[in-house]
Specification:
Chains A, C: GO terms for molecular function: phosphoenolpyruvate-glycerone phosphotransferase activity. Chains A, C: It holds the Pfam family Dak1. The complex is a heterotetramer, with two copies of chain A (331 residues) and two copies of chain B (214 residues). Chain A has eight helices and 14 strands. Chain A has 331 residues and is α/β, with parallel strands linked by helices. Chain A has two domains: 182 residues, Dihydroxyacetone kinase, domain 1 (Rossmann fold), CATH 3.40.50.10440; 128 residues, Dihydroxyacetone kinase, domain 2 (Hypothetical Protein Tm841, Chain: A,domain 3). In chain A, the strands form three sheets. Chain A has a six-stranded mixed sheet with strand order 1-2-4-3-5-6, sandwiched between helices. In chain A, strands 9-8-7-12-10-11 form a six-stranded mixed sheet. Chain A has a two-stranded antiparallel sheet with strand order 13-14. In chain A, helix 2 packs across helix 3 and helix 4 crosses helix 8. Chain B has a single domain, classed as DhaL domain (Serine Threonine Protein Phosphatase 5, Tetratricopeptide repeat, Alpha Horseshoe), CATH 1.25.40. In chain B, helix 6 runs antiparallel to helix 7. Chain B is globular and about 45 Å long. The chains are: A alpha/beta (331), B mainly alpha (214). The interface between A and C is large, with 63 and 63 residues. The complex binds adenosine-5'-diphosphate (ADP) (2 copies) and magnesium ion (4 copies). One magnesium ion binds next to loops of chain B.
Chain lengths: 331, 214, 331, 214
């Protein structure tokens, strides 16, 4: 295992020290592993909390700041944070208008946030929850834990963050969050496995001439192992299931071409070119796009595509100012 | 020789033995979780049980309700993932079921374990055959109850439970997972043991060991 | 070789299609492989041109936009672009106040930009040049082609871009560029080699228990191959030669912890934490910082540290608004 | 049998042969550049010479000045890196030295090659022993001149040049580079052939082959 780390058990602790040192606009609670805005938002506005296992950076800590999240809870690598972390964060960021929990649909995350919601509710904080589940790689969702929450989480945190900043109430913010989640679809692939630091070796072995289609963001094997193909074919294998799942024509879309962590930007742009061409051919109108590493899987090489069916309201919220370490414009 | 009642310190030995076992089998549990999950189950259980025993090292509560509440809360707040709330709930419910006692008879232990399993089901909604820890615990507790009904001591019942849980764990191998992250793999989840079934069969084996030794 | 590409010969061409599709604020000349701002800056302002081999993304194309570059020429992977590309870009971006060429110190880049400068000069465009050479890994620079230009190039493009935007003349802009270059030092390391697409295999073999200290950004072996160490020790091996080369105390510094392309953000933050601690211990006051992939080496895992000795003027220019795909704030 | 004069089409064959050779040895040149450079020399030379021959495919100029200007400009505008300006300048200067001739005698060819090498030195400031293409070309052209002085034909002189250039190339192996990106490696550049020395020894070998065959 070749990583820029000290003791594999200390990766999260050590990385949070770096986050704190790099970003004066953030405040890090090292005991509870929470990243806050240094300057809380105004009283009376809905606050946004997200969190999840570490190893997906910049998600979620990189999206804490004006226009997005108020705080993010960091779990161990690929392990949901715990209810006490979430409860603490919820209490701290509540400005009296309630807190929206943004939860990716994994059994662990859902259960821990559920417990946190109960605890915070008992303490008088109004909590609402949106569970993202946009991964079309998961089929037969009635026979599974449901679809995984992946790329749409990034777009949702931006859009809903802008709505909260505007001063909308908890019901409106939550309704918008659900609408965004329902309007987005993602599909991912891997060229290589990642290596969980504490495990010390790759989660799965992938021969040089094979790739995994339909992976999530936890280094899990995907739905199919298929022969390695060119960018053009890979793009088809990602875009086709997305378009098959939802009709994106007739509305402006926001598209994200996301890197899994170890694929360089030149490859991500190349993939985006392929994806944009396919979407164009299918009559999908791309209004906004994002190319880069936004929701990663440690040192996995690969990428994912997210398409979100937007409307004028969503585009306006998308364009609203945001100032986080991972996404920033207008500020 | 096993005895008819189980004092609390025997259950503390159980927890200590389980801590040692998950640390020892950490790589194995992670291996299982690598095949159909996200390669953290070994680390999760080792971290959680280490935290549990560190907490108890600072002082062991005198009654079962306090002991297991402490164990459950420590797991809930130190593990995360799916196993944190599930194992945490298991112990929290055990404590609630047992009440402020300092010694279990067989029936009380069976009831506490059963309450724990019910808590797991309440949290995780697992059903038989979903390929989860339920599939080791449910047959294990079934065997515990059956052994008691036939007059066995708690230690004998625990040994029966462990054996049944191990069979339940092994039975998960060919199944397609329907709960937890293994379910995302669909057909590809078949052919591998469920990591949570493995760690919970181990939990009952440690119980048998703790009650069986004297 | 596992990459998100089609034909290895087409990587640059295909990636530029993606850049164009992703960024309406940029215009791509596919024939000459130049990335321009879609909206040129005002007449009478100095224009900035950079360029170099591809494979270092976001450098340079990702730094084209308001507040930084006016255009970037893209060469083949790790190969300097050609004089005709540079000449064309120089002509197009000149707003009558002359053009500064920002050149990283590599024989190829220097010679090609030199030829381009001659050609553009002959056509009546005033051209000035700054050659960055901040890599302290290159020792005995009198016996070599001089130090390599690496991380400071990113900081320079930002700072000098802001000065050009202010309306300073070519002599002032050039003087500032030289000052920034002279005030910055960098040092890099690699955990793995990269793979040049056209070569099809890793440039060098690095055993699992070894790392290269003192690499540049072209997948070249470094100065020393040493046993793999933890982040703490790696940080020492990067920071020490930088501090040894220039006294950074008594002035505010801008620090960049840069990823080589395949190292995930969680590791880069962890490294930044280590570097920040060492700088603090050495009495270096960090005023601004940047953590992420800014000047990369394809899919190499590793990182580099750049420290720039700043002053109030440089910090003011650093904080000025910038709107590029790779660096953005205030706009 | 070699002849005393070299018509232009024979030099076009030289260029065509060199294109084929660098394509054939592309992996080898890249291998050399991987060891002490950035693994692109094979791709650079193959791209450049392919562009050169594609350009000439659309029409071959009738005089040496136009021919080599075209070759040089094509290399300058298609290669990039260090080798683009260096090889480009080499051919540009060859053309300027030769003038509007359609046939070379030995002396004119020697002068043109020498002018090309001077151009490389003017651009790159390489000195003997820096471990660059200079270290193959300089002994190569020295041998060319020496052979002519002893009455050899251009073909015989080219053969001597190629052999001397190859010896020059091989001599670069133990040296520590002092120019180009290999110099960044310091001592670690020793023990490897210089890629540019290899490609330029090949250039003279192809010249010998083109003039030698008839
Ligand atoms: N809904 C559920 N009900 C019961 N057990 C579950 C459920 N979901 C997952 N599990 C158990 O949790 C185990 C995985 O635990 P762990 O790896 O620690 O957490 P995570 O899946 O969050 O990484 C599975 O092997 C399975 O036995
Ligand atoms: N200053 C110089 N003078 C002469 N030849 C040089 C000089 N610098 C580099 N070279 C030659 O160029 C070769 C490398 O060419 P190439 O790999 O195509 O370009 P780059 O080094 O830009 O990647 C070296 O092997 C060396 O022979
Ligand atoms: Mg997990
Ligand atoms: Mg797991
Ligand atoms: Mg090169
Ligand atoms: Mg090279």
């Amino acid at each position: 295992m070749k990583k820029l780390i000290n003791d594999p058990q200390d990766v999260l602790k050590d990385a949070l020290l770096g986050v704190e040192a790099a970003h004066p606009q953030l405040r890090v609670d090292h005991v509870n592993r929470i990243i806050y805005r240094a300057n809380p938002k105004a009283d009376g506005k809905v606050a946004l909390l997200s969190g999840g296992g570490s190893g997906h950076e910049p998600l979620h800590g990189g999206f804490v700041g004006v226009g997005m999240l108020d705080a993010a809870c960091a779990g161990e690598v690929f392990t949901s944070p715990t209810p006490d972390q979430m409860q603490e964060a919820t209490k701290v960021i509540d400005r009296g208008a309630g807190v929206l929990h943004i939860v990716k649909n994994y059994t662990g995350d859902v259960m821990n946030f559920e417990m946190a919601g109960e605890l915070a509710g008992a303490e008088g904080v109004e909590v609402a929850t949106v569970v993202t589940d946009d991964d079309v790689a998961v089929q037969d969702s009635t026979w599974t834990a449901g679809r995984r929450g992946v790329g749409v989480t990034v777009l949702l945190e931006k859009i809903v963050g802008a709505a909260a900043e505007e001063g909308r109430d908890l019901a409106a913010v939550t309704a918008l969050a659900n609408k965004v989640n329902e309007s987005g679809r993602s599909m991912g692939m891997a060229l290589t496995s990642c290596t969980v630091p504490a495990a010390g070796k790759p989660t799965f072995e992938l021969p040089d001439d094979m790739m995994e289609i339909g992976v999530g963001i936890h280094g899990e094997p995907g739905r199919h192992r298929v022969p390695l193909a060119g960018a053009h074919e890979i793009a088809e294998q990602l875009v086709e299931p997305i378009l098959h799942d939802l009709d994106f024509t007739g509305a402006p879309s926001i598209v994200m071409l996301n890197g899994m962590g170890a694929s360089p930007l030149i490859e991500l742009y190349l993939m985006y070119g392929e994806v944009a061409r396919l979407l164009d051919k299918a009559g999908v109108k791309v209004a906004r796009s994002l190319v880069g590493n936004y929701i990663t899987s440690l040192d996995m090489a690969g990428c994912s595509v997210t398409v979100l069916k937007a409307d004028d309201e969503i585009l306006k919220l998308w364009d609203a100012p945001v100032n986080t370490s991972g996404l920033r414009w207008g500020l | 020789m096993s005895t008819a009642t189980v004092p609390l310190d025997r259950l503390v030995s159980w927890l200590g033995g389980y801590r040692d076992a998950v640390i020892e089998q950490r790589a194995y549990l992670t291996e299982l979780d690598s095949a159909i999950g996200d390669a953290d189950h070994g680390a999760n259980m080792a971290r959680g049980m280490t935290a549990v025993m560190d907490k108890l090292g600072a002082g062991v509560p005198a009654t079962a309700d306090e002991l297991f509440k402490s164990v459950g809360m420590t797991l809930v707040t130190s593990v995360g993932g799916a196993s944190g709330p599930l194992y945490g709930t298991f112990f929290l419910r055990m404590g609630m079921s047992a009440g402020a006692i300092a010694e279990f008879d067989g029936a009380a232990l069976a009831a506490a374990l059963r309450a724990g399993l019910d808590g797991i089901v309440a949290r995780g909604k697992a059903e038989a055959g979903d390929k989860t820890m339920f599939d080791a615990l449910a047959p294990g507790l079934g065997a515990f109850d059956a052994a008691l009904a036939e007059g066995a001591s708690p230690a004998e019942a625990a040994a029966a439970a462990a054996t049944a849980a191990e069979a339940g764990r092994d039975a998960t191998k060919p199944w397609v997972a329907r709960k937890g992250r293994a379910s995302y793999l669909g057909e590809r989840s078949a052919g591998h043991l469920d990591p949570g079934a493995a760690s919970s069969a181990l939990l009952l084996r440690c119980l048998a060991d703790a009650l069986g030794s004297s």
